[in-house]
Design goal:
The protein is of the alpha/beta class. It is built from twelve helices and eleven strands. It starts with a strand and ends with a helix.
Length: about 325
């Protein structure tokens, strides 16, 4: 085995330290970072942080999106969901399988992860870690520098590529040892622990579940819409997204193309909306009244502008809408 490794690299505290521990043994390390359709604002910041962290450590960083293939896993994960829509075990297997392909391309002998036994409730229990390793076809090739002494020696250790005695045996959720190492190495560039992807967020998870149940042919763009504003299900075939502020209104405008329809207020100050589904008198009336519900104006007649390939203007009588019934 050669002295080259691929590091599953989030840019967070644990993956940074795991990488550093192997670098200090004279191993050539390449970082591998995933982005996703389900990246939270914090995740996106971590992506930028991963670039800065890789630079501080002096390693090359490969960035890859999980892609539409990952959406298929979300729909029906073999090992189920966590508290919300997060298929953490299936996600981990997916990432390791993709990492194995990159390892082959880079001619890396083993994979580094920042896993710590017992740190995460779903994917970092001992038996779960062993299951994930077996399913990813990387048995014996995953080095976990922070918890290595709690596992049998890996191939890299057995062949003397790395020294097992210089690895650690951390377990549990405390990060006292990691924080001590940060001070020892004087590391500056890494993301602080905490948070998760959007799939762990109960509000987003509820929206996504409704979208998946209502629209079997939903797209990555539909998922992006769920991250922008208020989400309404007008009927089985029709969803509506309203902006919550000027920034979100501008983002919604960028979706104006088939199959989306842009609603803009004319006679009142209120949110813009994007509708996906059949355009009927009923959906127009409902959308206009939902938009007016979030406006301070109290006009009895609502005038709206539709962009759906052509420009249309409608006047709608204002009526009460049962927001709780249709809001997701």
């Amino acid at each position: 085995m050669n002295k080259k490794a691929l590091s599953l690299f989030s840019g967070g505290l644990d993956s940074t330290l795991a990488t550093k521990l192997i670098l200090d043994q004279g191993v050539d390390v390449v970082g591998f970072h995933f982005t996703s359709h389900f990246a939270s604002k914090r995740d996106k910041e971590r992506g930028l942080q991963a670039i800065r962290t890789a630079k501080e450590l002096g390693i090359r960083l490969i960035v890859k999106n999980k892609g539409d293939e990952y959406i298929e896993i979300i729909k029906k994960p073999r090992y189920g969901y966590g508290k919300n829509m997060n298929p953490c075990i299936d996600c981990r297997i997916f990432m390791l399988e993709k990492a194995a392909l990159v390892m082959a391309e880079e001619e890396a002998g083993f994979l580094i992860t920042g896993e710590v036994v017992g740190q995460r409730p779903m994917s970092q229990k001992r038996h779960t870690i062993e299951l994930i390793e077996k399913r990813s076809n990387l048995a014996g090739l995953i080095v976990r520098p922070l918890s290595a002494k709690l596992f049998p020696p890996t191939k890299a250790e057995l062949e003397g590529v790395i020294d097992r005695e210089k690895l650690l045996g951390i377990s549990g959720r405390s990060r006292e040892t990691q924080n001590n190492l940060v001070r020892l190495y004087n590391l500056k560039e890494f993301a602080r622990p905490g948070g998760g992807c959007l799939l762990t967020d109960p509000i987003f998870a509820r929206k996504l579940k409704n979208l998946m149940e209502s629209d079997k042919a939903f797209t990555p763009k539909d998922i992006e819409l769920l991250t922008i504003g208020r989400y309404f299900r007008l009927n089985n075939d029709t969803m509506l997204i309203l902006g919550r502020n000027q920034e979100e209104n501008k983002r919604l405008e960028s979706f104006w193309e088939f199959p989306y329809i842009l609603f803009s207020p004319m006679s009142f100050n209120g949110p813009k909306g994007i509708l996906k589904g059949p355009l009927t008198e009923e959906t127009i009336r409902m959308t206009a009244n939902i938009m007016a519900f979030y406006s301070k104006d109290v006009a009895l007649t609502i005038t709206i502008e539709l962009n759906n390939g052509s420009l249309e203007i409608y006047e709608v009588e204002r009526k009460t809408v049962d927001i709780e019934k249709i809001a997701m």
